Amino acid sequence: MTPNTSAISTVEHRSNSRSTLRFISDHDLHSNFIAARKSQKRDGRQRHSAGERQAWQEDKQRQKASPERAYNEGESMPTYIALLKWTPQGLQNLKASPSRLDAARKSLENSGVMMKDFYMVTGRYDMVAIAVAPDEGVMARALLSITSKGDFTSETCRAFTEEEFRQIIGGLP
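The chain above was modelled as a monomer; its predicted structure follows.
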């Protein structure tokens, strides 16, 4: 699966056989767009209409609103399963758990992670959350941000779909 994100990576080869990986962020792309527009206005040229600019800005807003917008149609983001346990601190204020869940869901969405399902369970763990995120780094940062409050601990693993499972097994020698 190749994500269609607006972060572009390029590899620049140097003469000493070392390579450098360079990432261009959404902010950089936007800044470059603004700088080009200012340059065009100074030169008396205007290549993009107001409608094109508005469409570009609306698309950026939709991407922020829905993490899955960063991927091509038909592709999905990696799925993660978080096995959660209440800490003694979390158990002391158990009745506030539903509001903490709402706050956690909002925090995850702001970080680019979408919680698909949540379950309270019996057994070794207290809760299970199923989420999708663009990559492991985004998921780790989001979970560390939430677990640092001290109400629960998390053991998180990457979940592979049946299709991904078949591709992985099919690639074995």
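The radius of gyration is 21 Å.
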